[in-house]
Amino acid sequence: MAGPVLELRSLHKEIPRKDLEPFKIFQDINISLHDGEFVSIVGPSGCGKTTMLRVINGLMTRTSGDIFIDGKAAEELDHELVMGFVFQGASLLPWRTSLKNILLGLEGRGHNPKEAGKIARKYLDLVGLSGFENHYPHELSGGMQQRVNLARALAVDPRILLMDEPFAALDAQTRNFMQLELLRIWRETKKTVIFVTHMISEAILLSDRVIVFSHRPGTIRSEYAVPLERPRRMEMRSDPRFLELENIVWKQIEEEVNASGGFNQM
Amino acid sequence: MNKRDGKLATSFLKIGSVAAGLSLWHMLAVYVINDTTLLVSPMVVVRTAYDMLFVTGELYPHLFASSWIFFYGFILAIVAGVPLGFVMALSPVVRDYINPWMATLYTTPRIAFAPVLLLWFGIGGGSKIAIVFLGCVFPILINSYYGMRAVNREYVELARSFRLRPWALFVKILLPASIPFILAGIRLAVGRGLTGVAIAEWFGATEGLGYLVFFAGQTLNVPILFVGVAAFALLGILGFEIVRQFENYVTPWKKQAQGG
User: Fold this and answer.
1) Domains of chain A, each with CATH number or no CATH
2) pTM over the 0.80 mark
3) Do A54 and B158 contact (CB within 8 A), yes or no?
4) Are B161 and A95 within 8 A, CB to CB?
5) The complex's ipTM?
């Protein structure tokens, strides 16, 4: 088997404070993802999982540790779009139509405009928004906006997709639909995914592996392979194996929350 | 009530309000004050305006003189104000350097500058344009500055995640995000620019609407005085409307968001 697509080695992040100990966000993170793997990260609020995702994407600096992509240091690849980031808020540019939003990452990357347009359209189709290319973000529903957000990240054909609670703002029903849609798109694009969520059932339904973070400073508390076959279906949420894993993970998060001073401290 | 009925009701209210105001004005002028050196009926004003436009044609030189001064000062203010606001937003050094001057100039009444500018630029167009410019430039500059400062942080992170270069960040994110702010500043500048025209033409001018109003006031010619004031008002409405149309054109996403 080929080496890992993404490898995090002793990743550590702290924020220096004046006259105080540095504020530790997460520490000693070791994760490796192989090609096409879908890994979710769950943990109590404020455990640093979102920050970790931003550090991986270079939106924030890290204090120490290494990030390797296909065996190369992330710094060497900084100017290449090896990662696509799917933001929690769709963060679509309101002055661009959905097609132009998807084009954003393709512009200035050596495609001629026609070719870029074709690629953007392909991803618009992939996320099921054919016919909405000329709609502005405010004309789209929350679920549709997240589809554009996903298409925009995918359009640059990144090696790794980083997803930061992309469905958190959606209503429960739309969220379920989007989970299935994401699985379909993932099957078709075969991306390697890190998916951050606070929803345990979402993590289990989507992932090959679920990683549980401790309370802050975030460390990896445990890791589980999801014992469910692919393709996943909604009914699997009542599968005994699903429920068992959900219980185990929930217990751990509960312990972490209590250890950090209880729910009212969050 | 559906949207169309609502719009219709609003138009009726507006028309009703104007009609009521004009009637009140007419009655006040004719039945209460009854002194043409103090107030004349709106009908007299309309007739005077008609004469000045279509019979003697004496309004045109004033209208053109004021319009040109306004136009030059206004455009200069946009050309200078927008880039300066951007530079201030992007460079703290420039901002700290310019801020004290801006605060001083912005808060000083412009009318106080008029004699100085007249002294420097003479009584020709230069000093008048400078006065209009001073009126227009600050709202434009300040809004350009805040527009660029207020750009959603998420958009900047998005640009970073796509590894946009600084120039692409500016052109594709910062500039379009601040356009609504800039246009709001430009809209404010229309009113302030016209005030500038009036001030400029009160000092040593021989034509222009400001001169017309000033002269008519001195000679107690109330009908002409009101024609001048009305011309200012119409220029203001026209300028405002042009900016609004331009706004709808360059920010179509805003227009649709407001359902307009």
Assistant:
1) 6-82+158-265 (3.40.50.300)
2) yes
3) no
4) no
5) 0.90
